[in-house]
Amino acid sequence: YLPLELLRETALRFAELVANSPRRPDVRALRVQLAKVRQRGWYEAPSEVVGGVIELSFPLFSGEAGAVGALASPYLKQRDVKVGLVGARAALAAAAQEISAALGGNARSS
Question: When you count CB atoms within 10 A of the terminal residue's CB, does the N or C end of the chain come out lower?
Fold first, then answer.
């Protein structure tokens, strides 16, 4: 969702971060995950830190600026809570759309 120039700058910063990190990401797996995010319009994956947690994240848009941030929330299935993953995802998508509208942008996918 980023303009090409900003995407290049972000990629360079990511490369610098990776170069200085003791943990090396799997670049092929990252590319696959990014393609999935672009296709469906949001990020959803099991947490790499906490077992049983699903990470959800939706982009926030602001007019001509494109994506300016993200609204993210962990999801953990709980025994006495009636909101499932589908409901949590829908609520987060609606909130991201509302925030984007307030910023003068429109969500591109939900």
Answer: C
CA atoms of 11 and 8, how far apart (whole Å): 5
Classify the phi-psi angles of 89: left when phi > 0, otherwise alpha if psi is within -120 to 50, otherwise beta: alpha
Over residues 33-91, the pLDDT tens digits come to 888 988 999 999 998 888 999 999 999 998 877 888 999 999 998 888 889 999 999 99
Query: What tokens does 95 get?
Result: 């909130």
- Tokens for 49, please give them: 């830190």
Return the DSSP state at 64.
Answer: G
* Count of residues in the chain: 110
Q: Is the pTM of this model over 0.90?
A: no
